Amino acid sequence: MRARAALATLSVIALVLVGSAGPAAASHQPSFVVDLDASGDATVTITYTYDLGDDAEQAAFAELRRNETATAAFEERVHDRFEAVANASENRTGRRMAIESAAVELTREDGTGVVEVSVQWSGLAATTENGLVLDEPFASGFEPDRAFVVVLPDGYEATTSTPSPAESDDGRLEWADGTTLDDFEVVATETPADAGGTADSDATTGADGPGVGVVGTVAALVAAGALAVRRRPRA
């Protein structure tokens, strides 16, 4: 229940962000990516995009990018929020979980501001004799408001996916935004051809690009709030 409540809170915050988000840049689409390692650890990355429609918004976003103090505060909030979710999931599953680090990255592509919030999540997936099992916290009332993507380790394939993903290709599973993920589970096993082999250098780039990943909605919300404050007309 604590995991459900924490994820529900994150989802509400995300909905607030969607209200201020604009069209995504071609190379950055709003997404929630879980990039799994064979150890069961994962990089979780949430990407938000904002339409910087005028000079004031662009200047505010640029100021926020330069503000290292604000970025550090965002990262601390993200870490604390995800740690609460990890602790609740640990209690639910009996499997040790931890948030090792959190990161917030702000970039700009033309008139679009991109906020990538990520965490390194230890023990997110269970390891078994045959592979990995990913379920909590996503199996307990999580409904993504953006594309939800699971990237499997190199040489792994999904043998069970509940619910069925809208797209599945080369170790990348994707569910459309708004999909109800109750009883969510992905079971992945190492394919015989790659067992004990060397990882392919051309790995799928779900969360690998930013090198971080998770539901950093709190940090993005603070960023959106900062922009909103700067948009207020001067007296």
Count of DSSP E strands? Answer: 11
Report helical residue fraction.
Answer: 25-40%
* Class by alpha and beta content: alpha+beta
* Sequence stretches where pLDDT stays below 50 over 5 or more residues: 1-26, 194-235
Overall geometry comes to: globular
Secondary-structure element string? HEEHHEEEEEEEEEH
Keywords: Membrane, Signal, Transmembrane, Transmembrane helix
Transmembrane segments: 211-229
Domain DUF7345: 34-156
InterPro entries: DUF7345 (IPR055769), PGF_CTERM (IPR026371)
List keywords for this structure.
alpha+beta; disordered C terminus; 11 strands; PGF_CTERM; four-stranded antiparallel β-sheet; disordered N terminus; seven-stranded mixed β-sheet; 235 residues; 31% helix; globular
Notes on the structure:
By secondary structure, the protein is an alpha+beta fold. α1 runs antiparallel to α3 (68-93), α2 (55-66) packs across α4 (217-231) and α3 packs antiparallel against α4 (217-231). The chain has a seven-stranded mixed sheet with strand order 3-4-2-1-7-10-9, with helices on one face. A four-stranded antiparallel sheet has the order 5-6-11-8, with no helix packed on it. The longest helix is centred in the middle third of the chain and has 26 residues, at 68-93. It is built from four helices and eleven strands. It has one domain. Helices cover 31% and strands 30% of the residues.
Write the layout of secondary structure elements.
Layout: H1 2-20, E1 31-36, E2 42-51, H2 55-66, H3 68-93, E3 98-109, E4 112-122, E5 126-127, E6 131-134, E7 147-151, E8 156-162, E9 167-169, E10 172-175, E11 185-190, H4 217-231
Parallel strand pairs: 1-7
Antiparallel strand pairs: 1-2, 2-4, 3-4, 5-6, 6-11, 7-10, 8-11, 9-10
